[in-house]
Write a structure and sequence with these properties.
The structure holds three protein chains of three kinds. By secondary structure, chain A is mainly alpha-helical. Helix content of chain A is 79%, strand content 0%. By secondary structure, chain C is mostly helical. The longest helix of chain C has 34 residues. Classes of the chains: A mainly alpha, B alpha/beta, C mainly alpha.
Chain lengths: 240, 247, 252
């Protein structure tokens, strides 16, 4: 068997090769990232809302959450959520005097941890974007007789997205890369699949390289997507 | 009131769950990175001595079993969290673990051995001063190493046994401390390496871990172990992996 | 090498013991039981962070200059370097370098092997390369935001290219990039926790080892507090140096 052939066999689909495992892992990676993105965006918007609210309690809660997430390694957060959610569920079970059913699976724990991380950083992006919309425009809208809610939805929101897209794009790419961390809680995503493949075949270099290239591909596609979205969001803006 | 609503909901779901099941349902966890006891093949299927024993026990008990893989670090916490009902993953029965979980009677017994490259000049623990010695984190081998040789040797702890082998092959560590049988299995395929030093007999028995409140399952499994010892199913599996009885 | 290592390890052990003698009585039992391990791990984390930031910066400056160079021979490789290391997860890079390269005979026989065989060094190398890509990008941002007029003024005053860089462009690029660099250092502090996956006994490595013995969740809590404290101190240090760097802009 020539080296090229053996590489092709190892990366092939089906039972002989690990190609299908890697692909399945890559799909799970995207799945985790997309679900975390959706939850993280909601969390980020809510936290940003709390930060610009007039309640000091909401403000304090929101900034405590952001600061804690920013000061603790993502790796530790994932382990904490993974093991912590279990213990929380056990105590909840004890309180209800029932054990069973309460199981947070690895996928949920991973997604929860990644959403918490994404939400914390996204709240800062949203807050910045909110403040970037000139207040004069809101005043103008109110003066024209729009309600405050109307001004928010019609004037502030559409423009906020424009300011938020570059920051959110960055966070999305951080999120994509952070999904690799959930391999430590044995979720069979891309990195863990290549890990298993590399150890079993004793070709770790090739499989880690394959994983790196797939992640790189994700980044390139995301970069392109972000570029397109920026163009679209800015289509009404005059270029200098 | 709230508590009651939740309770009734849970009971409703639980009843649907049990009604669907015929016979006993057992969810079993193993690690999947500890050859030849538990590992995965290229199709992702779990295989190995532990897996075969698990299947034999389930057959004996006429139970409906599912076997899942779980990384070693989280294998006990996830049992406690009810993610599965039993751990059949070559787990030693230790004092520390007994505080958290219950064990069946042993299904094999274990001792520790060092492994090193042939001709490395290491013939026992006394030759290892200043050398790098690896073991898996969260195993008794790892703890024995830290408790007995820390300060004398550089202790390297790995998340997985397979990673420790890889590092010994690349020469990053000079020796490895491991449960004897997995090392025996690995040495069969890696003729450049050998057992070094004496057996470290730590009176180690390998059992099946279950939750503390699950005495029924524990006793059923213990009885099943004895039964497959009797009827030859155990011997058949044993012979598939080792030329000597490991019970 | 090894002799030095052992003395150094010994010293670290002694200091940790001493620190724990002092703080042991005032800390919770769960922490005090494993205090020397936590302190040792914290030392290792700081060690790794300091070395990586230094090495990373040393690589990043020429990389940023190459990236903004008008010569494609420099700018294209720099662009690829930055893109690849920023575009793939650090954990994959660590595994690729540590387990992947260890597979090759050539590598194991090279004169660098005594260092590369050590997970501590390998961790430092990979983290440094990784951070250098991020820092280069940050510096590039700083360089291109230096006002064009200043560069023209410098040229008009007869400055050569390298003098222009040393006197005008780089000092200002650093000042502009400083807050972003501070963020990157904190990200590095957090990223260093990943070295525990290649057997480095940093704070995270110690924490996971302790946790694997007791399964007490509070162990993770103590580690979180320690990391948080380090991040807090770093943030503070960067904020005061930022004020110092911008002192000429104050009171305007």
């Amino acid at each position: 068997m020539t080296p090229e052939e053996s590489v092709l066999t190892l990366l092939s689909l089906g039972d002989a090769g690990w190609g299908d495992e890697l692909l399945r892992g890559a799909l799970l990676t995207i799945e985790i990232a997309l679900v975390s993105l959706a939850i993280g965006l909601v969390l980020g918007l809510a936290t940003a809302g709390a930060k610009i609210s007039h309640s000091w309690l909401l403000k304090a809660l929101a900034s405590t959450y952001t600061n804690i997430i920013r000061g603790i390694p993502e790796f530790l957060i994932i382990l904490l959520v993974f093991f912590g959610s279990d213990q929380l569920m056990i105590s909840l079970g004890n309180w209800l005097n029932y054990d069973g059913l309460f199981e947070i699976n690895k996928f949920v724990a991973g997604v929860l941890a990644l959403s918490l991380i994404f939400g914390a950083y996204a709240s800062e992006v949203f807050r910045g974007a909110y403040l970037a919309v000139p207040y004069g425009q809101i005043e103008a809208a109110l003066a024209c007789g729009m309600t405050p809610m109307g001004a928010f939805w019609r004037i502030r929101m559409p423009q906020m997205w424009r300011y938020a897209i570059p920051g959110l794009g960055n966070l999305w790419m951080v999120l994509l890369k952070d999904t690799s961390l959930v391999s430590v809680i044995a979720l069979d995503e891309l990195l863990r699949q290549s890990n298993i493949a590399g150890e079993t075949t004793r070709e770790p270099f090739m499989f880690y390289l394959a994983a790196a290239l797939i992640y790189l591909l994700f980044t390139i596609v995301s970069d392109y997507g972000r570029h397109r979205m920026e163009l679209r969001a800015n289509r009404g803006v005059r270029r200098v | 009131m709230f508590k009651k609503t939740i309770m009734s909901f849970i009971l409703a779901v639980a009843m649907v769950g049990t009604a669907a099941a015929e016979g006993m349902k057992i969810r079993i966890a193993t690690e999947g990175a500890y050859p030849p006891f538990n590992m995965k093949d290229a199709s992702g299927e779990l295989i190995g001595f532990d897996v075969d024993i698990a299947k034999a026990l389930c057959k004996q008990m006429q139970a409906d079993c599912t076997i899942v893989s779980q990384d070693w670090d989280g294998i006990i916490p996830a049992l406690l969290a009810n993610k599965y009902d039993a751990i059949i993953a070559s787990m030693s029965i230790t004092e520390e673990r007994l505080k958290k979980v219950d064990f069946t009677g042993r299904y094999y017994s274990n001792y520790l051995r060092f492994g090193a490259k042939k001709g490395s000049g290491i013939s026992g623990a006394e030759d290892m001063t200043g050398k790098a010695v690896g073991a898996q984190r969260a195993t008794i081998a790892g703890q024995w190493l830290e408790d007995n040789l820390a300060g004398k040797v550089q202790v390297k702890l790995y998340d997985k046994q397979t990673a420790a082998y890889a590092d010994m092959q690349s020469g990053r560590i000079d020796a490895i401390l491991s449960d004897a049988y997995p090392l025996f299995d690995w040495l069969k395929e890696n003729a450049d390496y050998e057992y070094v030093g004496d057996k470290i007999d730590i009176n180690d028995q390998i059992g099946i871990a279950v939750r503390k409140d699950d005495a029924q399952l524990r006793d059923a499994l213990s009885a099943a172990i004895l039964a497959i010892r009797e009827n030859g199913a155990y011997a058949e599996i044993n012979a598939k992996y080792f030329p000597f009885d490991i019970y | 090498m090894l002799g030095f290592d052992l003395t150094y390890f010994e010293a670290k052990y002694q200091v940790s013991e001493a620190v724990c003698q002092v703080i042991g009585p005032v800390t919770p039992q769960g922490f005090a039981d494993y205090c020397p391990r936590f302190v040792q791990g914290t030392f290792t984390t700081i060690e790794i962070l300091v070395l990586c930031c230094l090495i990373g910066l040393i690589i990043a400056v020429p990389m940023a200059l190459a990236r903004v160079s008008s010569n494609r021979l420099f700018s294209v490789p720099a662009y690829i370097y930055i893109y690849v290391f920023r575009g793939t997860p650090l954990l994959v890079q660590l595994f690729l370098f540590y387990y992947g390269l260890g597979q090759f005979e050539v590598f194991r026989e090279s004169f660098l092997w005594p260092y590369l065989r050590d997970s501590w060094w390998m961790g430092i190398i990979v983290l440094s390369i990784n951070t250098s890509a991020y820092v280069a990008e940050i510096l590039r941002g700083g360089i291109v935001s230096v006002p064009q007029g200043q560069i023209e003024a410098g040229r008009a005053a007869g400055m050569s290219g390298s003098l222009l860089y040393r006197r005008i462009i780089l000092p200002q690029a650093f000042r502009i990039a400083w807050p972003a660099y501070g963020n990157e250092v904190i990200l590095m502090l957090k990223a260093s926790a990943l070295t525990s996956t290649i057997t480095v006994m940093d704070l995270m490595g110690q924490t996971r080892t302790i946790f694997s013995r007791s399964y007490d969740l509070e162990i993770f809590g103590y580690a979180a507090v320690l990391y948080f404290a380090m991040a807090f101190i770093l943030t503070y240090l960067f904020r005061i140096t930022e004020r110092y760097l911008n002192r000429h802009m104050a009171y305007r």
